[in-house]
């Protein structure tokens, strides 16, 4: 679970909505990073994730289809066994204008590869959760100063992996991390074992060829396997 001070805004306001959202991410343990070339694939993909036991998606703004894909997923009214619905966010958000587009499309959180004050401030203006990428102590410290208490750790694998997160957690015990980039089913447990890790992000359960082919069976199967691995990793 995340700490009581999650969701602290730049002005010090705690948002209950962000706390609840981060708690949900912490419960799911995994954040699938999706690249959609065609918004027509968005809803079948979301249904495959849900069927595999993972009702969450980070739709990356690497493609022009991102906003339409987020809107399609949000509007589809996809239900989950526990009634909590599908959690849809935006990824690869690098400009304030993309924040606007993501929020307008219904994104509930905004992930960036790096730390940009302009992006974080636009997220805070919208009241949407920002998860910017950080990898150094300087970047983590800057994120703290922006009022953030959870960041992405990207690119995790080539930036020291779990050992680096553990080292950063010593001086920054108030910060939580979502490691992404190079996470696989084989190393997932090493990340999830760290108390400062909320969830691990990755694309391995949503391979581009399966998404492009509309191969929902493969996505559902890879997702179910990832969920089982995350469950086996414990808290
Ligand atoms: O561009 C962004 O903002 C991203 O979100 C980057 C992705 O998180 C990673 O590229 C996923 O890494 P893999 O799981 O190794 O494929």
From TrEMBL:
Q: Which Pfam families match?
A: Aldolase (PF01081)
**What keywords sit in the KW lines?**
Carbohydrate metabolism, Lyase, Schiff base
Provide the E.C. number(s) assigned to this enzyme. 4.1.2.14
Q: Transmembrane region positions?
A: none
Reactions accelerated catalytically: 2-dehydro-3-deoxy-6-phospho-D-gluconate = D-glyceraldehyde 3-phosphate + pyruvate
**Coiled-coil segments:** none
Q: How does it assemble?
A: Homotrimer.
Q: What is this protein called?
A: 2-dehydro-3-deoxy-phosphogluconate aldolase
Species of origin reads Georgenia halophila
């Amino acid at each position: 679970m995340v700490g009581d001070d999650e969701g602290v805004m730049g002005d010090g306001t705690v948002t209950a909505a962000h706390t609840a959202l981060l708690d949900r991410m912490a419960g799911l343990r995994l954040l699938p990073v999706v690249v959609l070339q065609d918004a027509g694939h968005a809803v079948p993909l979301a249904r495959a994730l849900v069927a595999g036991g993972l009702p969450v998606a980070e739709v990356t703004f690497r493609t022009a289809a991102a906003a339409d894909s987020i809107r399609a997923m949000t509007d589809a009214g996809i239900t989950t066994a526990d009634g909590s619905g599908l959690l849809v966010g935006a990824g690869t958000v690098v400009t304030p204008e993309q924040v606007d587009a993501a929020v307008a499309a219904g994104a509930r959180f905004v992930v960036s590869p790096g730390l940009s004050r302009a992006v974080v401030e636009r997220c805070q203006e919208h009241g949407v959760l920002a998860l910017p990428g950080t990898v150094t102590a300087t970047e983590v410290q800057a994120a703290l100063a922006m009022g953030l208490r959870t960041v992405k750790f990207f690119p995790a694998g080539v930036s020291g992996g779990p050992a680096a997160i553990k080292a950063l957690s010593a001086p920054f015990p108030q910060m939580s991390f979502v490691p992404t980039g190079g996470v696989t089913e084989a190393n997932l447990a090493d990340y999830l074992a760290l108390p400062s890790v909320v969830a691990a992000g990755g694309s391995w359960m949503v391979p581009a060829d399966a998404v492009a082919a509309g191969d929902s069976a493969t996505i559902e199967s890879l997702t179910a396997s990832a969920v089982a691995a995350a469950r086996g990793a414990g808290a």
